[in-house]
Amino acid sequence: MADTRITILQDGPAKVETDGSLEIVDHEGNTVPHREGRAVFLCRCGGSKKKPFCDGTHSKIGFAGAEAAVKAHQEDS
After folding, report:
1. Considering the entire predicted model, what is its pTM?
2. What residues are paired with 14 via a beta bridge?
């Protein structure tokens, strides 16, 4: 069984690493091609033009990860 690690980067994408094969499928079950053996960075901000992959848009639009967004909301209340 391959070990897989998903790291949620602060205010950025989800980094997916595995020592085995990784299959990514879309909402219709179609395989999404990617480079095997390399980390995959998945968009969390919704702004990427290369979905499901991150293209760095999060840094241009000021994306705040869930923890930062909740904290900011609580401070404003």
Report:
1. 0.81
2. 8, 42
